[in-house]
Specification:
Order of helices and strands: HEEEEEEEEEEHHEEEEEEEEE
Number of strands: 19
CATH class of the largest domain: Mainly Beta
Structural class: alpha+beta
Radius of gyration: 28 Å
Length: about 350
C-alpha cells in the first residue's frame, strides 16, 4: 500500500508546481498510510478556512517483531488540524492533535505474558500539504511522547519510549469534484432556458432605451450581443465577484498565471441595468487591470486589494467594457482590450464573464 501511495505522489507532483485555486471549504476523502489513517485506511476531512476535523478508519495487518506475531486490527481515530497557509503558494504546513489508534506493538521484555498490543491515546501531528482545487497530497509526521495513552497499565514498556512515525496520503476534494461533474451538465441543461431568458431580457433592455439616437442603437445592440454570447458560454468555478462601497470587483483568470481584475463604479447595483463604457472615456471610474504571477484564489472580500499581491500591474489602455446587471448576477464582456505590461503589448479580442453572483 505504501509503495502504491508513493507512486501516486510522484505521478501527481508535477501538477502542483504552480499555485492553484481552492475553496474556503474542503470536504476531503483521503487514502493514506500512517497513524492518522489507522494503519492503512480512509479519512474524511471537513475543513473551513484553516481549521479541519477528520475521522478515519483503517486496518493494520499482522506483524512480526522479535519472532512474536502481533495480531492485526481494525482501527479508528479523530484529528483536528490547523493549517498555516503561505500566500501565493499551493502548499501549506499544518499541526494538530490525533486521538485514537496509535500503534500495534511488542517489546521483547514482555515475553509471553498477556498484554494489550493495540494502543489508543493522543499524539501530535505536523506536516505539509500540497494541493490544488481538486487534489491534495499530504506528507506528515506523528509525534507520540508515549505518555498520553489509554489504560497504560495494559501496555507494558510502551510508555518508556518516544515515537515518531511518517504518514502519506492522497485526497480529493468532494466539493470541487461535485462542481466539476455538474458544471457541464448544468450549463447544457440551462443553455436553451438561458437563451430564452436572455432574449426576454434583451427585449426588456430594448424597452429601457426609448430614444432612437445612434448611440442608444449601438448600446442596445451591444447588450443583445453580450447576452447572446453568454447563452453559450461556460462559467468557471474560479471567477469571483464582490460589491462594496458602490464598486463592483470582478476577478477573472484568462490563462495560466494571468488574470484580469475589473473595477466598475455602480452606485445602483440593486437595479437591473446595462452599461457600456469606452475605457478611454471612463478611466477615472472604471478600471481593467492585468495581473501576472502566481497566486492562490482570493476570497471575494479580498478583491479590492488583490492587485497589491503582484509586484507589477498594468491598466487597460483601450477597450470596451459592457456590464449587464440582473441582481444578484452580473454579465460582463471586455472587447478589444489592450495592455502594455512591462513593455510588452498584450491584446484580447474578447473576455466574457457570465452569470457571476456578487
Amino acid at each position: 500500500m505504501k509503495t502504491f501511495l508513493v507512486k501516486i505522489f510522484f505521478f501527481l507532483l508535477p501538477t502542483f508546481t504552480v499555485a492553484q485555486f481552492y475553496y474556503e471549504k474542503y470536504l476531503n476523502c483521503k487514502l493514506g498510510e500512517g497513524i492518522s489513517y489507522g494503519g492503512t485506511g480512509l479519512a474524511l476531512e471537513y475543513r473551513y478556512k484553516k481549521i479541519s476535523f477528520n475521522g478515519s478508519i483503517g486496518f493494520k495487518k499482522e506483524q512480526y517483531r522479535y519472532d512474536y506475531l502481533i495480531p492485526s486490527s481494525w482501527n479508528f481515530g479523530f484529528d483536528i488540524k490547523y493549517y498555516i497557509s503561505k500566500k501565493n503558494a499551493n502548499w501549506q504546513f499544518f499541526s494538530g492533535l490525533h486521538t485514537g489508534w496509535l500503534s500495534n506493538y511488542y517489546h521483547p521484555d514482555i515475553g509471553q505474558n498477556k498484554y494489550e498490543p493495540t494502543v489508543y491515546g493522543i499524539c501530535f501531528l505536523t506536516g505539509i500539504e500540497v494541493r490544488d482545487d481538486l487534489l491534495n497530497i499530504e506528507l506528515g509526521l506523528t509525534i507520540d511522547p508515549g505518555k498520553l495513552v489509554l489504560k497504560p497499565e495494559t501496555h507494558p514498556y510502551y510508555t518508556s519510549y518516544f515515537y515518531i512515525n511518517p504518514s502519506l496520503a492522497v485526497g480529493i476534494n468532494l466539493y470541487a469534484l461535485k462542481t466539476a461533474l455538474n458544471i457541464n451538465k448544468k450549463n447544457n441543461n440551462k443553455k436553451i432556458k438561458n437563451k430564452e431568458e436572455f432574449e426576454i431580457s434583451s427585449d426588456k433592455l430594448t424597452s429601457l432605451i426609448n430614444e432612437d439616437s445612434l448611440h442608444n442603437i449601438i448600446v442596445n445592440q451591444q447588450a443583445k450581443n453580450l447576452l447572446d454570447n453568454c447563452s453559450g458560454s461556460i462559467k468557471t468555478i474560479y471567477e469571483k465577484a464582490y460589491y462594496n462601497n458602490d464598486t463592483l470587483y470582478i476577478f477573472k483568470p484568462v490563462s495560466k498565471q494571468k488574470f484580469v481584475l475589473i473595477k466598475a463604479y455602480l452606485p445602483n447595483i440593486k437595479n437591473e441595468q446595462f452599461l457600456c463604457y469606452n475605457i478611454n472615456d471612463s478611466v477615472k471610474t472604471q478600471s481593467i487591470i492585468y495581473l501576472q504571477g502566481s497566486i492562490s484564489a482570493p476570497l471575494a472580500e479580498d478583491l479590492p486589494y488583490i492587485h497589491e499581491e503582484f509586484e507589477s500591474i498594468s491598466y487597460a489602455k483601450k477597450g470596451v467594457l459592457s456590464i449587464y446587471i440582473k441582481p444578484p448576477f452580473c454579465y460582463v464582456s471586455i472587447e478589444n482590450i489592450h495592455f502594455n505590461h512591462q513593455g510588452i503589448n498584450i491584446f484580447f479580442d474578447k473576455i466574457s464573464i457570465c452569470e457571476l453572483k456578487f
